[in-house]
Amino acid sequence: MMRKWLLFFVVSCFIGITACSNADSNKADESTSEDRAAAENEQSGFQESNSSNSNSQALNNNQMEEEAASDTESSNTEEMNVSDRKIVYNASLQLETESYSDTVSFIEEQTNQSNGYIVSSNSTSHEEDQKRGSMTVRVPSNKFQPFLQVIEDGDIRVVNQSTSGEDVTEEYVDLESRLEAKKVVEERLLAFMEEADDTENLLNISSDLADVQEEIEQLTGKLNYLDNQASYATVTFSITEKNIEVTNVQDESLSTWERTKEQFTKSINALLSGASGIFIFFVGNAPIFLLIIFVGGLAYWIIRRRLKK
């Protein structure tokens, strides 16, 4: 009886050990499968991430360029000194003068001495040969105030004067930053064009490159315009020639003999003028006078003849 129980116990232990080993083997296989699946998923995710990164590379580059342009703009604005700021100066002066031509010559001379140039000039003549006109000149901004002071100190009456200044520094810095960003895009598009492997991509890149280069030209033109406007101040003149009333001092300065000769000449001229008028009157109206004389004589003869009868 003891042998049977001992045999039953040994068989049970063997069966239990076998079952436990199979369970451990299954768990190990499941763990290995799970690890393998996780590795495959991780590799697939890495490949998808690489594909997504390659597709969004251009967008990220553009964002980086915009951020870099913003950083450049803020740093440039902070570091710019007051003397380096871009300010556009304008002035308008209304002048009155005794000689229009002398005033124009004076303004031209002062403009040349200030290393400036004349933009436009026009004039018109009114009653009694009075002239009016306008001039627009441009002088270097650093000589703007001295130029105005010279005009005010000249032999010219300044009736009205107005000056203004516009700070375009922020606009200028913004355009510079945008230009630098566009140049970066241009360089990358050129690099992409060299690496293009089919016609469609090449055409798309060429179209984008043309748009970027056009924007670069526009930004460059705006920068050049602001440079010119800030480097030279614009001054506009409105010039009016006054009516000059000259007092008659000739009689006071003449000597007695000269005044006598002048009066004698005036008298002769008056007599000649009167005689000439009388002569012209009678000679010009001679036909009428002859007709009147003839009619009057005829009437006188008829009346006298009747009285005799």
UniProtKB/TrEMBL annotation:
Record keywords: Coiled coil, Membrane, Signal, Transmembrane, Transmembrane helix
Ranges of Polar residues composition bias in the record: 71-80
| Domain (DUF4349) ranges | 85-301
State the signal peptide span. Answer: 1-23
Q: Does the keyword Transit peptide apply?
A: no
Which domain of life does the protein's organism represent? Bacteria
What residue spans carry the region label Disordered?
A: 23-83
Protein's recorded name: DUF4349 domain-containing protein
Recorded hits in InterPro entries, A to Z, give:
DUF4349 (IPR025645)
Record lineage: Bacteria, Bacillati, Bacillota, Bacilli, Bacillales
Enumerate the transmembrane spans.
278-303
Q: One Pfam family this chain carries?
A: DUF4349
Q: Where is the composition biased (Basic and acidic residues)?
A: 26-39
- Coiled coil spans: 202-229
* Naturally occurring in which organism (per UniProt): Gracilibacillus halophilus YIM-C55.5
